[in-house]
Design a protein that fits this description.
The complex is a heterodimer of chains A (320) and B (263). Chain A is of the alpha/beta class and 320 residues long. Helix content of chain A is 28%, strand content 25%. Chain A has 2 domains: 167 residues, Rossmann fold (3-Layer(aba) Sandwich), CATH 3.40.50.620; 125 residues, Rossmann fold, CATH 3.40.50. The chains are: A alpha/beta (320), B alpha/beta (263).
């Protein structure tokens, strides 16, 4: 039943798994192999949905007996699925759990792994190629995996889920030796909404060196209230001036809001790397030559001490 | 006594790295090198454990001829000794190969209770070394740790996962990778910087770890073909108006028209 050309995709996150199946189907077609997937602790034993998203084979493993065995359980199930399936390419969802699992699997199989790929393909010799961010997110590296099985991880929303189409497939129940827990999970605390990091914020306003004094950040606060936004800043404002705790950019937060408003920010590559994935970038900066203007969808070249209050008023009037 | 090995990677200072505008390639020549930020936080965590419970801290790096100087900062912060694998014949150091070299070096260091590192190095962003070593050394691993302490000889830690904070306990020896929130690393005093130069540093070649460089190089699996800074594709609309009020009004309307605000 094994195929030397197949693709196996896995994530404990269902939405991400469906996205990976879409990409996996594309790669399996190029390799002329089949597409397989694994579900640990399935709630729906026929898993039609996964077949309809392209899976030829669905491996089912039992649910782990308790939280402390989870990590080892998922690892054992995946190692067993790969032993049975012999895939040529393995794609794992880059959740935090997945990013721990993939390199462990790669070590077990003595092969490579490419982390958080933003694009994947196979070359004419069937080797997996990828694009991924490096240098704090300021560059994109093009990489090739020279050893099979080729392993890659992919973050949520990198690839789109494809429309399901009628398809049937095989279900295989996996048996594997129960792993012993190596870590004791004492407690799991749900995160509160306020704790949601800058990474998850949908609107962010940020301060750069254009602010002359800490007290002036009140201008930013007022804009943040008008936009229902979280506040952030560049590295110098946090690391050098100590006006805020944490910054956005390389070695800081990487954000992906729908709207990012950069105020008095010059736009270094270090900062640019942290805001790259913003949907719309707006900037207010005094200098026409500032790099932030190149990085912006809309900018006003002007004195932020005059522009911010005017913008706050204009937004308040229009959002009443 | 707790013996801690902290894995520290020496990387280019990302805050000083520039992009060549004509080639879109990073220009790394002559850029200062430093300890990758998250690894430095792992070291700070180790120093705090030592301050609270006693112990000894060694740092371990797979580096280059400059690494010895970069690691002086770690010794000044509070590490007791620094071990560096510095072998120019090791090429293609991907995560697979690097983890094998680290495994051999850890076996040479011998007794340890805890291996600490950052969740990833900020240049390669691979996040693989900790999990790989867990398999190679058959040790338990705690990833994404944001706080930790030793409780009755066991390590108790909080892991920062997407949806939950997970409180976990593990018997030593174990491997731990930390996230940025774990602490703010200290800045060493001038006195400690002076003292650092007298602390022991040992450099190893592959052969002194019982490794054959050719074999290690042949095992390399992932090759980087190209690194480019992508061009940004933005609308680049500069809003101009007679008065600041008019410009602000136009901008407010443009933002609302984009549909990026929640109503």
């Amino acid at each position: 039943m094994s195929s030397k050309k197949g693709v196996l995709v896995y994530s404990e996150n269902r939405a991400l798994l469906l996205q990976l199946l879409g990409k996996g189907e594309e790669l399996a077609a190029k390799l002329e192999g089949r597409l397989s997937t694994l579900v640990v602790g399935s709630k729906n034993p026929d898993e039609t949905e996964l077949h309809e998203h392209g899976a030829d084979v669905v491996y089912l493993a039992e649910k782990p007996s308790d939280p402390s065995t989870e990590a080892e359980w998922h690892r054992s199930a995946l190692v067993e699925a790969i032993k049975v399936d012999s895939p040529h390419v393995v794609i794992i969802g880059a959740t935090k759990r997945g990013k721990e699992l993939a390199p462990r699997l790669a070590a077990v199989l003595d092969t490579g792994c490419m982390t958080e790929c933003i694009d994947l393909d196979v070359d004419e010799e069937g080797r997996l190629t990828s694009m991924r961010l490096t240098y704090g997110g300021s560059t994109i590296a093009s990489e090739i995996s020279r050893k099979a099985p080729h392993i890659a991880t992919v973050a949520p929303l990198t690839f789109q889920e494809k429309e399901p189409k009628p398809k049937t497939g095989e279900i295989v129940h996996l048996g594997f030796e129960r792993p012993r827990p190596r870590v004791r999970v004492v407690e799991r605390r749900e995160k509160r909404k306020e704790e949601v990091a800058l990474e998850e914020a949908s609107v962010i306003v940020s301060a750069g060196r254009g602010f002359k004094a800490q007290d002036d950040l009140s201008l930013l606060e007022e804009l943040a209230t008008a936009l229902d936004a979280k506040m952030g800043c560049t590295r110098p404002i946090a690391a050098d001036m100590g006006w805020m705790d944490e910054w956005i950019g390389i070695s800081g937060h990487k954000v992906k809001p729908k709207l990012y408003v950069a105020c008095g920010v010059s736009g270094t590559i270090q900062h640019a790397a942290g805001i790259r994935d913003s949907q719309i970038i707006v900037s207010i900066n005094e200098s026409e030559a500032a790099n932030i203007n190149e990085l912006s969808d809309y900018s006003i070249v002007g004195d932020l001490y005059k522009v911010l209050p005017a913008l706050t008023r204009a937004l308040r009037e229009r959002r009443k | 006594m707790t013996r801690i090995v902290v894995l520290l990677k020496d990387i280019v200072d990302l805050n000083e790295m520039k992009i060549d505008p004509s080639t879109r390639k990073p220009s790394l020549e002559g850029v200062k090198r430093r300890i990758s930020d998250l690894d430095k936080r792992a070291l700070e965590a180790a120093i705090r454990l030592k301050e609270a419970h006693g112990g000894e801290i060694a740092t371990l790096s797979v580096g280059n001829p400059k690494t010895r100087t970069v690691m002086l900062e770690a010794l000044a912060m509070g590490a007791d000794a620094s071990y560096i694998v510095n072998d120019g014949s090791l090429t293609g150091l991907d995560a697979l190969v690097t983890s094998k070299v680290l495994k051999a070096a850890l076996e040479k260091i011998g007794d340890y209770d805890l291996i600490l590192g950052g969740e990833m190095s900020l240049d390669s962003l691979s996040a693989q070394i900790g999990p790989r070593l867990a398999e190679l050394l058959d040790l338990p691993i705690l990833t994404y740790v944001k706080s930790m302490d030793l409780v009755e000889g066991r390590l108790r830690a909080v892991r920062d996962l997407e949806d939950v904070d997970e409180v976990v306990e593990v018997e030593l020896p174990a491997i731990v990778s930390v996230v940025r929130e774990v602490n703010e690393p200290r800045i060493p005093s001038l006195m400690n910087i002076m003292k650092a130069k007298r602390k022991p540093t040992e450099e190893w070649e592959a052969s002194s770890l019982g490794l054959a460089a050719e074999e290690i190089n042949a095992a390399s699996s992932v090759e980087v073909l190209d690194v480019t800074a992508p061009l940004v594709e933005r609308k680049r609309i500069v809003i101009e108006a007679e008065t600041v009020e008019d410009a602000a009004a136009k901008l407010a309307e443009a933002i609302i028209a984009e549909g990026v605000l929640e109503s």
